[in-house]
């Protein structure tokens, strides 16, 4: 299937969490079972998103990013 004139897309499955003890086995099984290219945990996805926005403090063009930034400050303040 072609999107935006390109065939270089990956299928990514985001899951809540993987068991640390069986992480590799679970990833391997899920990749085959769901026919995806990569498995990432939700927490990992949020951390990468926060890393990409941490140098900014205001997002007038994106209420979603503004909300994520604000929530991250509350979560970090609780630690």
What does this protein look like?
51% of the residues lie in helices and 10% in strands. By secondary structure, it is mainly alpha-helical. α1 (23-34) links the parallel β1 and β2.
Keywords, separated by commas or semicolons:
single chain; about 80 residues; mainly alpha; about 50% helix; about 10% strand
Briefly characterize the structure.
The protein has 79 residues and is mainly α.
Rounded to an integer in angstroms, the radius of gyration calculated over CA atoms is 16 Å
Unreliable stretches:
none
Note the total helix count: 3
| Strand order across the largest sheet | 1-2
Average pLDDT rating:
80
Order of helices and strands: EHEHH
The percentage helix is: 40-55%
Count of the domains: 1
Oligomer: single chain
Strand content: 5-15%
> What structural class do the secondary elements suggest?
mainly alpha
Largest sheet: 2 strands, parallel
Shape: flat
What's the count of strands? 2
Distance between the termini: 45 Å
Question: Would you spell out the secondary-structure blueprint of this structure?
Answer:
Layout: E1 12-15, H1 23-34, E2 38-41, H2 42-53, H3 63-78
Parallel strand pairs: 1-2
């Amino acid at each position: 299937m072609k999107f935006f004139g390109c065939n270089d897309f990956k299928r990514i499955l985001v899951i809540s969490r993987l068991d640390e003890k069986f992480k590799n086995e679970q990833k391997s099984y899920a990749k085959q079972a769901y026919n995806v290219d990569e498995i990432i945990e939700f927490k990992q996805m949020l951390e990468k998103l926060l890393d990409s926005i941490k140098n900014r403090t205001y997002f007038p063009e994106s209420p979603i990013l503004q909300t994520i930034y604000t929530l991250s400050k509350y979560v970090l303040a609780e630690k």
